[in-house]
Amino acid sequence: MTLPPWIVLDPSLKNWLLEDIGRGDRATQGLLASEIRPGKASWILKEEGVIAGLPIAARVFHLLDPEVCFIPDIEEGELYSSGTTIAHLEGSFDTLLMGERVALNLTMRLSGIASATRQYVDAIADLPACFVDTRKTTPGLRILEKYATKIGGATNHRMGLDDAAMIKDNHIRAAGGIGKAIARVRATLPYPLTIEVETSTLDEVREALEHKADIIMLDNMTVETMREAVEMIRDRDPSLLIEASGNITLKTIREIAQTGVDYISSSAPITRSHWLDLSMKFIRIKRRQPQRSPPPEKCWIKKQQQSKLSTFADPAPSFYPLLPIPPDKPHRGEIARIESLSKCARFHQHCVRRKDCSPFRAG
């Protein structure tokens, strides 16, 4: 999956920022008071892993201050070693500190999931079976955690109960059998949603086949029983999809994939992964020199159609703020600002051109 439009994620991001900020950053407020200092910082990877979540981190800082420039130095979804600089940030010192914890927490959590997912995916990379995630996610984080498994190389299972009908053991008990459950669900299921049936014995597999389930899940079966079930299903309907689930580990996943199943689902990358360790280090903090405001007649506005530049976190075209008309030699402060905006714009344009970089677009 790719990230949804920011209108979907922004309420959660804002709530997480409010939770952390409270009534303000006491240390930074006491240190700077009303003074504004520009700063540059870098994000450093402190252990090997797969990076995921950089678009979300950029959006966190953008919500605090659209002037912050977040420039990733690496590609999401790749494995990097400890000590790698993964991003650079430019903006006011207090804003970078205010958004640091929320942005880092989300990126570390998602990168840990992506790193764990990659291990499972690599274990069966040469086999036809696909590794898929589950609905065992942290409440409020499902979209982001499933995004992380996708970055790690997995295939997303259903996002919610409304994506497909999965008839599980409790449904079967309530209906009085697999056949009755399939018939009753199919009578109310909208086209083109599918029906997947959970089975744990060969008899249940036969019943699911008889009543034409679209997908059959082999749950908590031994490898030997699973192999028999796959042969039975293939003999009856070679095109029917088969999913294996239950107690999938890195030690067992390859043997299970060799039985011939189409999908192997596990919650382990989300429920058992650790956070990937990242830190933010400031490169430069300097006192901003006061500048005299230019006379009104010496101000100009760079209009939308005259420039393709925009900030990374919000790709929608926007007006530049008022800038002084440069004299014969441009002011050094103006040059630095234009160079900073150009860096952000070049990164955004690079993302727009790359088809696999769609998560970086702000919807």
Please explain how this structure is put together.
α10 links the parallel β10 and β11. α6 crosses α7. The strands form 4 sheets. Strands 6-11-10-9-8-7 form a 6-stranded parallel β-sheet. The chain has a 4-stranded antiparallel β-sheet with strand order 3-5-1-12, sandwiched between helices. Strands 2-4 form a two-stranded antiparallel sheet. It has 12 helices and 14 strands. With 363 residues, the chain is of the alpha/beta class. The C terminus is likely disordered. The protein starts with 5 loop residues before the first helix and ends in a 10-residue tail after the last helix. It folds into 3 domains: 132 residues, Aldehyde Oxidoreductase, domain 3 (Alpha-Beta Complex), CATH 3.90.1170; 103 residues, TIM Barrel (Alpha-Beta Barrel); 56 residues, no CATH class. The longest helix is centred in the N-terminal third of the chain and has 31 residues.
